[in-house]
Amino acid sequence: xxxxxxxxxxxxxxxxxxxxxxxxxxxxxxxxxxxxxxxxxxxxxxxxxxxxxxxxxxxxxxxxxxxxxxxxxxxxxxxxxxxxxxxxxxxxxxxxxxxxxxxxxxxxxxxxxxxxxxxxxxxxxxxxxxxxxxxxxxxxxxxxxxxxxxxxxxxxxxxxxxxxxxxxxxxxxxxxxxxxxxxxxxxxxxxxxxxxxxxxxxxxxxxxxxxxxxxxxxxxxxxxxxxxxxxxxxxxxxxxxxxxxxxxxxxxxxxxxxxxxxxxxxxxxxxxxxxxxxxxxxxxxxxxxxxxxxxxxxxxxxxxxxxxxxxxxxxxxxxxxxxxxxxxxxxxxxxxxxxxxxxxxxxxxxxxxxxxxxxxxxxxxxxxxxxxxxxxxxxxxxxxxxxxxxxxxxxxxxxxxxxxxxxxxxxxxxxxxxxxxxxxxxxxxxxxxxxxxxxxxxxxxxxxxxxxxxxxxxxxxxxxxxxxxxxxxxxxxxxxxxxxxxxxxxxxxxxxxxxxxxxxxxxxxxxxxxxxxxxxxxxxxxxxxxxxxxxxxxxxxxxxxxxxxxxxxxxxxxxxxxxxxxxxxxxxxxxxxxxxxxxxxx
Length: 586
Known about the structure:
Distance between the termini: 21 Å
CATH architecture of the largest domain: 3-Layer(aba) Sandwich
Number of domains: 2
Helix content: 25-40%
Number of helices: 17
Strand content: 15-25%
């Protein structure tokens, strides 16, 4: 693709706001982490309550996630007014990523519901996955389309990538992209139940690493075609996204999906691995993730690995989930502009197969090309290639020809899974089918029916097939199943088997596993219009050549929790069930 300019940013993180929120420090300095024992999580009874919390007071009864998003948006608007005063007159769109949406409000709403107390309308609306987006309404033009990516830990990386696709396609002239998430007891207890959290300081890529420390924050960037604006913060040069199709919570041990995402992003940028100076790593410091990423780095970088510096920023700001990709992109662009090779937090022997460089202190050095890597629940992977601000004369030409799109199949809505069909059409055995949450089972059944109705679609190579889940209510029903146990037995009583299904991204990942699909897979939505938003994303992926077949799975698990919350908030209720819409290139 042609370079996309990063025009301005707005950030709030455990390090601060604005540039301070993505600081890497000065040359010669060691990293300083915001991770510490969190008094709120400790009071909840978590055994590993280390986290990085934003040190600002949220007003009473205000959703914490919405407040973080609003602070970042206000910072972005102020910077845009300074560097690009006419930005409001441009054709714009918003692509915002999140893992938990209004999770802090949902915790309160579910507790009131369990106590048989009324849920106030404003709390019910804030508790949905789309709830926090309401704070953006006064700041951006109502006519600008809004797409929320519910892609767990790759959310804002994918949001930036899809925003670049929309600009490159000429659909819009201006994009606001990024992500947000708030630290919550719900999510912290889930990560601890999975054994994914650290007992001490996170040690990414170290042999003794034992887990991640959660964080919170919001980061937004304004994007435009590099030919349309003056150079400012940096450029996005390439994007790639793939699926592992291996496991819903653990990555492919060989990092194959991440390798394909990184190589796709480099190819999109017209670059080879030898151009890479810095890797902004996903680096959760969990044994499985860092092992897979180590394998991916070795495969992608080859002989160049030993000279490339790796920046594992989550050890500094915590894992900010839906905000992580955007925060880490801005930290990397800051390193590029300042000519600093950033250091890595942590000590001890390296992962035995780790072939790149981790610096103890920041060093002066030229950074021209960065690759940002992200992975998530459901086996989603994403990569961005970043470069310095591009002048008009340096803009790459010869972009891929845009392809037109047609609907090849639209199935009827189903309201019950079909175990016999799943046994015949999928790679899932009987036990795995029985253990599926309802939304995932409905989604897999809808895709199986599409393949049954259109067998020719099975001829498309797995790497060229994408699964995009469209959902208005996300995983609200599964959230209550998980939270009920947590409320009854405390945070330490949370059930690990129920936590993965609390991610709206899970049905997309389950579909990719069930059918061996290796192209992009993630969820879109969180509110009315989810199906249209997902179809729009699907068309961008096909037009750009990211996939040849995109299966949009419209799925909503509507039970008593959804009915109660939406009724309390006077929000329209979606249809229960699932259907598949198959889009292909002409």
